[in-house]
Amino acid sequence: MSEAVHPVDEILPVPKLAILGLQHVLVMYAGAVAVPLIIGRALKLPPEQVAFLISADLFACGLATLAQCLGFLGVGIRLPVMMGVTFASVGPMVAMGQDPQIGLLGIYGSVIAAGIFGIVVAPFVSRLLPLFPPVVTGTIILIIGISLMRVGINWAGGGLPFFTQTINGQSVQVANPNYGQLQGLGIALFVLLVILGLIRWGQGFLANVAVLLGIIAGAVLASALGLMHFDKVAAASWFDVIVPFHFGMPTFHLVPIVTMCIVMVVVMIESTGMFLALSDITGKPVDQKALTRGLRADGVGTLIGGIFNTFPYTSFSQNVGLVGITGVRSRWVTVTGGLIMLGLGLLPKMAALVEAVPQVVLGGAGLVMFGMVAATGARILTGVDFRTNRFNLFIVAVSVGFGMIPLVSPNFFKNLPHELHPLLESGILLCAIVAVLMNVFFNGVKQASTDEIVAAAKQAEAH
Length: 463
Prior knowledge:
Blueprint: H1 14-42, H2 47-70, E1 83-85, H3 90-97, H4 103-125, H5 134-157, E2 162-167, E3 170-175, H6 182-201, H7 205-208, H8 210-224, H9 231-235, H10 254-282, H11 288-307, E4 313-315, H12 317-326, H13 331-345, H14 348-356, H15 359-381, H16 391-408, H17 421-424, H18 427-443, H19 450-459
Antiparallel strand pairs: 1-4, 2-3
Helix pairs in contact: 1-2, 1-3, 1-13, 2-11, 2-13, 2-14, 4-10, 4-11, 5-15, 5-16, 5-18, 6-8, 6-15, 8-15, 10-11, 10-12, 10-19, 16-18
């Protein structure tokens, strides 16, 4: 008599796989396209190139998800995981891209190097877990949310409040006349209210896709008011192939590579927590070999991202939460989701449609999405012992202070070596480094238990 198939490995009927896989895609879609939108618009890329970044991201999401769920040659955790671009990489990549000596090709070079680094160090990363107790991870996630809130607020305002313009050979900052227009603020508020209403009164699947439905409602309103234009959607082709190195051959610079490798370590630590949480939810134990395969898949996904014109990948925690909510544990559901993402990446019209959504619409959703990241960090910190260990207060206080420097005073480090700017201009990385060092200084290195890591990961489901 053959052994019973574990629910994680159960192959469901095709119609059920399609519906459940689509649900996973819808839950992560807004987050999946957010990073290419942020990077593309921060680097002032033309709309068609931003649309291509979205297509490339969706395509690479699919490939990375398949590598993680199906697994091959020592790669893949083989649990129900959806892979997407990590928000932790946004700050460093924007800083790199805005440096004319690095640019987009320098970003891709650092992503490729970080992917290879991740593949090599995967067996050793789990040994770093003692450096990331809840007081450190909670602080880092809090700063990630605070950093991204600036993006969401500027989206709601209609773009950046100032933009750089060259006058008589000199770069000067000019006020954005469209920033803070009442019509745009009203649309952002409308999107926010729709999302909150769906979360409050929606049930099950409807509540799970509240962010996406809010964006759709906002896009319909913006279109009715004449603020959303579809000429580039009409011009986009129905089908296109995502080719490697679309923007040219990557370039490699030492400091951006080191910076992205640090991001990769943070990403892999986050993924470890997610894998342990999934192990608990699905009832399938994760041993050292399985954990190494999962972390190695993060590296492979990031390498795929650099080759196919996109960015570092990690497991999306909102999908981990969805597994817990639905109780459907089959990894073939997320395999189906990965195939759907692949298909969407090959449809340029879909990417062009997403790119056409006005920033004010995204702003209403961004306030929820990015605010939830900060709130998640705060929730993790509620489990930290501040009462009997006063050192933890200093760890959070100083780390948050360093993380806020690039947000509050972008020129704070202007007199330090230019090569260090991609690192120093990322509040997330500054916060991570300071939090780890402060924790080691005050608390030493203590081995975190699996239960503590799982509990922290479960709290981070909204991240």
